[in-house]
From TrEMBL:
One of its GO terms (molecular function) is oxidoreductase activity. Pfam families: Nitroreductase. This is Nitroreductase. Keywords: Oxidoreductase. Residues 162-215 form the Nitroreductase domain. It comes from the Bacteria. Belongs to the nitroreductase family.
Length: 330
């Protein structure tokens, strides 16, 4: 019997893992059905704003081309216009409503567009909409090579290779202004059609951190010493079509890495905490803390100031030839 079990144990383990994966896929699919952005309800501010971002970002791209086709961009202009009319009618205004208005006006006022009848009508209507964003540069801006050069580091290897996951922090809180600064810088992360569907939950209360980390598997041995905890989430309402079923993980992962590096740039250490959890655990954590039902948890991040002396895992990286290849046609 023991020999028989030894023979079939790998198959049993494999079947258990496949079943677990299937349960996870079904849970994600159910959440997409309940909370995804596939609905066409423009009266819902969040849904309208994500769809609006997709449309006006198309206009931004059209505005950014040096040699743009004179008649390009009108289909997106019409989409933006229709959504802005809804926003104006119900007066429940979001960030992307304001940005969409500014981008649309920039597009309509192009010399080749302004003289057309449809542009005149749209300009007449849109300028009357009672919402405006005076503090943003939307559409397209001039950006020179020296502007790009401002991001060049004298020694980039020192910055990137000095970042380690830390699991032993100073027992003091991070300056709130530094947290806000890191998040604002991380917001420059690219996202699909610039929808910016991220949401960051944060706490520095020991009782909350302790309770939350009970549901995370990778903090054993140091979880009770974490001074600051972030939970990175992404809003499912930002994703509309079937081929975007993984996009929230992609956008959330990009933002998470940006936040790790913006914290590092401010002298704040961090440790990424995986959230590849079962549906049961995901449901349980939503019962103890206020996570919006539309938000998918991407990961957690422990953070704090490093001690004067620290020990970190020296996890060596693969040789580059194992992960880098030239693209070739078959």
């Amino acid at each position: 019997m023991r020999l028989l079990w030894k023979k079939f144990r790998p198959l049993a383990r494999g079947a258990y893992r496949i079943f677990g994966g299937l349960r996870g896929f079904m849970y994600d699919f159910q959440r997409y059905l309940r909370f995804g952005g596939w609905r066409e309800n423009l009266n819902d501010k969040s849904l309208r704003n994500y769809k609006l971002a997709m449309a006006y970002h198309g206009l931004e791209k059209s505005l950014s081309f040096k040699k743009r086709k004179p008649n390009s961009g009108w289909s997106n202009a019409e989409r933006v216009y229709r959504k802005l009319k809804v926003a104006n009618n119900i007066m429940n205004i979001g960030f992307h409503d304001k940005a969409g208005k500014e981008v649309l006006l920039q597009f309509l006022n192009l010399p080749e567009n302004k003289k057309t009848n449809r542009a005149s009508k749209m300009i007449n209507d849109v300028t009357k909409f009672d919402f405006k964003d005076d503090f943003q540069n939307h559409g397209s801006i001039s950006f020179k090579s020296e502007d790009y050069g401002k991001g060049i580091l004298e020694d980039p290897e020192s910055f990137f290779l000095s970042r380690y996951s830390l699991r032993d922090f100073q027992q003091k809180n991070i300056n709130p202004k530094d947290i806000e600064r890191a998040i604002k810088m991380a917001m420059k992360t690219p996202s699909v059609c610039n929808r910016q569907a991220w949401h960051i939950y944060h706490s520095n209360k020991p009782e909350i951190i302790k309770k939350v980390l009970e549901y995370q598997n990778g903090n054993r041995g140091f979880g009770n010493q974490v001074p600051e905890l972030f939970i990175i989430g992404v809003d499912l309402r930002a994703f509309f079509v079937g081929q975007e079923h993984y996009q929230h993980w992609i956008d959330g992962g990009l933002f998470s890495m940006s936040l790790i590096y913006t914290l590092h740039a401010l002298g704040i250490a961090s440790c990424a905490l995986n959230w590849s959890q079962t549906p049961d655990i995901d449901k349980k954590i939503r019962k103890i803390i206020t996570i919006d039902k539309h938000h998918t948890i991407i990961m957690m991040l422990a953070a704090g100031y490093p001690n004067t002396e620290n020990k970190v895992c020296s996890s060596k990286r693969k040789p580059i030839e194992e992960i880098y290849s030239q693209i070739e046609l078959k």
